[in-house]
Write a structure and sequence with these properties.
The protein is mainly β. It contains 6 helices and 28 strands. The longest helix has 9 residues.
Amino acid sequence: MSDVIVDTHEIERRTIRRSDWVACNAAFIDCRTPGSDRKENYAFIGAGVSQNPNQVVNLTENHGFNTGAAGMPNGISNNLHLHFTAEVFINLGGEFRLRWGVDGKEGEYVSHDGDVISIPTWIFRGFTNEGPDEGILYTVLGRDVTGGIIWGPSVLKEAESYGLHLTADNQLIDTVAGDELPTDVALITPMKQRYIDELTSYSVEELRSRVVQPGDRVYSSSALLCTAVDGGAADLALVIGYGMSENRRQVPSIHEPHSFNLAWVRAAAGQGVLQHRHQQTQALLVKSGRWDVTLNGDPSTTVTIGAGDSFSVPQGSWRSYVCVDGGEAGAGEILVINGGDDRVTLEWAPEVVSAAADADWTIDPNGYLAPLGVMLTATEDD
């Protein structure tokens, strides 16, 4: 693997701080519907599913997934809609009532801080903020091209009464603001009942199996080679996909392909994931604490990120992320999102490999942790 050197300009460009978030209050067709008119939508990596061409996107290049967020005051709802690719919510603080089904009555789940919820594709879903005004649902959407969304029939009908229409090429037409209805592109009409009848139904129990609450996380303190090395005592909990765990016994909570994998990493101050690299796209989101992300193995190319900040790590670059302040809990939490559904093969820096070997640990041919003493006695094929 050839070296990828990341300069300070590129680091700054890929750093998305909480203060860099730019809300769009007219991202979707329900932006004028009472009870949904004060939503704030954000697009961080990729354009997501916004229907407003003026939506600010912090980082536009393809990652194989999109990230964004939804914020709304207490009592405000995001109306029922359907996605074709994965939609995962990460609750960054607050209380949200999620509902699903074409009429929103098929089931409900009330989400709290730290939840990760993977909503099935091809079902209608919506949510309402029942907690503090500053509640945020961070979102990860599958694939670069999501195909947009389909709104519930009642949502489209109500939006039309406020002068809002949606074209087949995903453009929002506002006749109240003076837009003219197009003559060369069809308008989106409500989904026909025969197609609605073919959608899959999900019980509350089935949806709950796609929720990973903080208490559901299963952390491993030996998920990575660096845990055998001073400064590398990071715990890892798989959420979606096998990702970058090197513990052959570790199993994710959700196995279904999403086009990305997702895991929590936690560490006390002075500990973290030591220098390594891999070829997948990667985004880091800080849930708590402050973390130093160092590129190129060079302290001069280090960025410190805190709660609500995220960072897109260039593919193939050397990187480490170490907690510098665990906060009141004593350990910081960071969400790691890697592109792709396959396992992520890590290449560790030579000094990490050497120090791990001194502690009698190595990586076996299948990419999992193994005692070095055992591997030294293995018989290789001719």
